[in-house]
Amino acid sequence: MKVLFQIRPDYLRNPAGDTVQAVSTGRELKALGVEVAISPDPNALLTSFDLIHIFNFTRIKESYMFFLNAQKQHKKIVVSPIYWNPENFLRRQGAKPQDLAVWKLNQPMRSRVAEGSDLLLPNSTLEADNLTADFPGHAPCRVVPNGFPDAFPAIGPEPFRRRFPALPAEFVLCAARVSPRKNQLGLAQACKDLGLTLVLAGPVNDRNYFNLVRPFPNVVYLGTLQGEILASAYACAKIHALPSWFETPGLSSLEAAACGAAVLSTDQGSPREYFRDLAVYVRPEKSGNLDEALDKGLKEALNLSPLPLTDHVRSHYPWSRIARLTLEAYEDLLKGNIPSAAPVK
Length: 345
Known about the structure:
Elements: E1 2-6, H1 17-31, E2 35-39, E3 51-55, H2 60-72, E4 76-80, H3 87-90, H4 97-116, E5 119-120, H5 125-134, H6 158-163, E6 172-175, H7 184-193, E7 198-201, H8 207-213, E8 219-221, H9 227-236, E9 239-242, H10 251-258, E10 262-266, H11 271-275, E11 280-282, H12 290-302, H13 307-316, H14 319-334
Parallel strand pairs: 1-2, 1-3, 3-4, 4-5, 6-7, 6-9, 7-8, 9-10, 10-11
Helix pairs in contact: 1-14, 2-4, 7-12
């Protein structure tokens, strides 16, 4: 089987969850014998490929062009939407009104992709429900979760401790793009209130927002961490906190749990489907209570045993298992085993 992954042109220069999902899935599919190529070219010649797999139609313009090109060349189209309606976030206090207007303006393109593809691979049943609410005529869905690197659990805290010996023994980690959606500003204030060091690891998506977060005396910014050193950071952290406006479910939360950290997560999006009652949740949209909720959540997470969540995540979400589920979906599609009204699995 030969599959072409299509993703936005800046997926490596501006890495995000779609980058991790595409690269990790592709690597593990290759281990299963699938030929996988990645191309950001909206005019790619598709003759040699059995199907086209498009990642992310939240950022729709590039994905829409990939979709049109695949349709024109009569190829089977699989889409990982990575979709959650962000209107609550776009209506928050301080948001730019034009961002909500642009989102709504682009919804018809998302609708056409959702309805015209052959198979959608949402990352959760909750995401599938979100798709149904916004695009009721969408293509069949097969749930394929997000995952964590299989090698991460074997990496202990020592590499991180050697590189950053000045950090305190206990700290809160947030490994994510620094941006308003990820809510590091509220997290920094809550950690300051509790006398906790907050370690931030990730690219800066919004420089003005970063300039609000960075001056907190309890905040340490390490830049972007990857691979072994990132896994080691998770293993060192007392808590990994991601109180975003929404997540599907937050790749760094999955990775942190797999490495043995307690998890504090947003309750918006699909985290509860992954982490059940084994994590601590906060609701960021209740802005008046956010500081109080984060304070309470961090205190609860400090006393939470991470072992049940770690065991659960390690058994269900390694990328090797996710790739097998993806391959099963491809095979069923190519064999015609996915009916037009296929149920969510």
